[in-house]
Structures are given as structure tokens and as C-alpha cells.
Design goal:
Elements: H1 10-16, H2 27-34, H3 41-45, E1 50-58, E2 64-72, E3 81-87, H4 102-111, E4 114-118, H5 130-144, H6 146-149, E5 151-161, H7 163-178, E6 185-189, H8 200-204, H9 214-225, E7 250-256, H10 262-274, E8 279-284, H11 291-294, H12 299-315
Parallel strand pairs: 3-4, 3-5, 5-6, 6-7, 7-8
Antiparallel strand pairs: 1-2, 2-4
Helix pairs in contact: 5-7
């Protein structure tokens, strides 16, 4: 018996018809996907006045982690502005620091934000908390170099999409528990939050081709967690496990109604509210996983991106109560 699913947005449905879709990931398929050309970041920068800098930050074990720093070319370094720290998507098994970088670059355009994107190491080459700890080291570097970057340390935003959204949530929990650095807001775009993969929405998107299916999700989590039992999984890796969601910065979450992560995202927002925190949640009708990154020209995608940017504008206002 086929599990009923919310219908796709008609425009997205038409666009998706031309995209090759998969049902599952495997080591061989992953190797092929990793061999595809990287995101053409130079194309995204061509029409922008942006200074780009590449730095390496040591991981906890000393491994150098690449960070790309994008700043408005006319930025006055003596006037501190906001920073967006970006974590890319890719199921924690693929992608690089330029994946979905068009999303935070819009905030460089809109707010003059410095954008920093991290190349955290991928599973299965590294496992457990290594990925989130890599991302945390990048956050520490930003905080330590805020003056040099022209960044206001009180306006650092942690953001990410898909796997990067889950890592952004984990980094925010880690920074809260360790007491630093300060995070002004977190933006979690269709975040990958729960390794258990047992929600209604995860079951709805099982057993057929898609942008990101339950089976693909299981492959990604399996690569990260290996043989760990549920009792051994850290909430910094799978943030839905966190018992306490109090004390978090103001949070933006969005997802599509027609995707695997819908229910874990809505649950995370509900639990932030229950803990007395502030969160804004949008579930875009007919949106599949990553719809606004894949097809930004679609009407629902443009609306989702405008709404996210408008929220961030409010969150970045001095003394914002968002």
C-alpha cells in the first residue's frame, strides 16, 4: 500500500520532472557524486564586489580545515557588522564549503555581512562528533578574529542547510553548553536533526526516488554514526536528542511539507517554544527537500528566501527582541 504524501507545489513538480532522482545512496554512488565538479563559486562572485580570503584553521586533532571568508569589497573594517557562519549541506557525506553558498551571499548583499563558510570533514572518513567539532573550531576562529574581520561579535549568526542546518544546531548547542562564543541567531534551513529516522514524514518519503529519501537519510546517518548504539549518540551530532533546548539564540527554521525532515523540524521548533525560547517556523506547502536551493526561480522558493532574509533583518537589529 502506497503511503499518501502531500502534493508537490505545481511549479516545483514541473521543474523536478527534469531532474534525475535516486532512491538510495551506496558507497559507489557516493564516490560518483563526490567526483562531480564543485560549485562554481566564481560565477556567484562575478557580479558582486566581494573580497575573498582563504584561511586554514586547525581542528582539535590539528588537521587544517579550510574556511572561505567573503567580505563586501568596500567594507570599512573599523565599522563592525554582522557575520554569517555557513555550514553546507550534503547529508554529512558530500558537498563542500561552496555548496548552497548563494544563500548566505544574499545576506552579504542585503546586510553587508561577512560570510564565512567551513569545509568540515565528511563521513565516513570521520565519524561521531568530529564534524560538529570541526564546525565549532571555525566559530571560535571567527570570534577570535572578529576585529580583524570587521565583525561585531554580538552579531554572529550560525546558519546552514540540510546536514549543515543540523550541524549549525549542534554548534549552537555546543557553544551554549561551553559558554562561548556568543551566537546572535541561528538559521536552520531544512535541517537534518534526528538520526532515528522514524517520523511520519520520514516514512512518507520512503520507498521511491526523491531528492532526499528515508533510505538516503539512513545512509548518511549510518556513515556518521557507524556502530554507535542510540545511547552513545551525542545530541551535538543529532540535536533532536537534546533534553534541554533552553538558552538558545533566536532561531529560524524552515522546511517543506513534502520532505523527510518536516516533522523533526516542526518538533524542534515546538520544543524551543516549550523551553521558553524564541523561534520562527515556516513549513512551505508543496516544498520538497532543498527546493529553494535547487530552484530559486520558483515562486515558492523566492517567497521562502525573502521571508528568511526579512526575519534575519529583524534579528540583526541592535537590541532586537525577535
Amino acid at each position: 500500500m502506497t503511503t499518501p504524501r502531500p502534493a508537490l507545489d505545481p511549479e516545483l513538480h514541473e521543474l523536478l520532472a527534469d531532474m534525475p532522482l535516486m532512491s538510495e545512496l551506496s558507497p559507489d554512488v557516493l564516490a560518483q557524486l563526490r567526483g562531480l565538479p564543485p560549485t562554481p563559486v566564481d560565477t556567484l562572485l562575478a557580479h558582486r564586489r566581494v573580497d575573498r580570503r582563504e584561511v586554514f584553521v586547525p581542528a582539535k586533532d590539528g588537521t587544517p580545515l579550510p574556511l572561505s571568508v567573503f567580505s563586501p569589497a568596500d567594507k570599512d573594517r573599523t565599522t563592525a557588522g554582522p557575520c554569517v557562519y555557513w555550514m553546507h549541506g550534503g547529508g554529512m557525506v558530500m558537498g563542500d564549503r561552496f555548496s548552497q553558498i548563494d544563500i548566505p551571499l544574499e545576506w552579504l548583499d542585503e546586510f553587508g555581512a561577512v560570510v564565512v563558510s567551513v569545509d568540515y570533514r565528511l563521513a565516513p572518513e570521520v565519524t561521531g562528533t568530529t564534524l560538529v567539532e570541526d564546525c565549532y573550531q571555525g566559530l571560535l576562529w571567527i570570534a577570535e578574529h572578529a576585529a580583524e574581520l570587521g565583525v561585531d561579535p554580538a552579531r554572529i549568526v550560525v546558519a546552514g542547510a540540510s546536514a549543515g542546518g543540523g550541524l549549525a544546531a549542534g554548534v549552537t548547542l555546543l557553544a551554549r553548553d561551553l559558554g562561548a562564543p556568543a551566537i546572535a541567531a541561528q538559521v536552520l534551513v531544512c535541517p537534518m536533526l534526528d538520526h532515528r529516522n522514524t517520523t511520519t514524514s520520514s516514512r512518507q518519503y520512503s520507498g521511491g526516488p526523491g531528492v532526499w529519501t528515508r533510505e538516503m537519510n539512513a545512509f548518511g546517518w549510518g556513515a556518521v554514526l557507524g556502530d554507535l548504539s542510540d545511547d552513545e549518540v551525542s545530541a551535538y551530532v543529532s540535536p533532536a536528542l537534546a533534553d534541554d533546548l533552553s538558552g538558545l539564540p533566536t532561531t529560524y527554521l524552515d522546511t517543506g511539507s513534502a520532505e523527510v525532515f518536516r516533522d523533526e523540524v516542526t518538533d524542534y521548533a515546538t520544543r524551543i517554544w516549550a523551553a521558553g525560547g524564541q523561534a520562527e517556523l515556516h513549513v512551505w506547502a508543496g516544498g520538497f527537500h532543498g527546493f529553494d536551493a535547487l530552484y530559486p526561480q520558483a515562486a515558492v522558493s523566492a517567497t521562502a528566501r525573502r521571508t528568511r532574509t526579512a526575519w534575519l533583518a529583524r534579528a540583526l537589529r541592535p537590541n532586537s527582541g525577535t
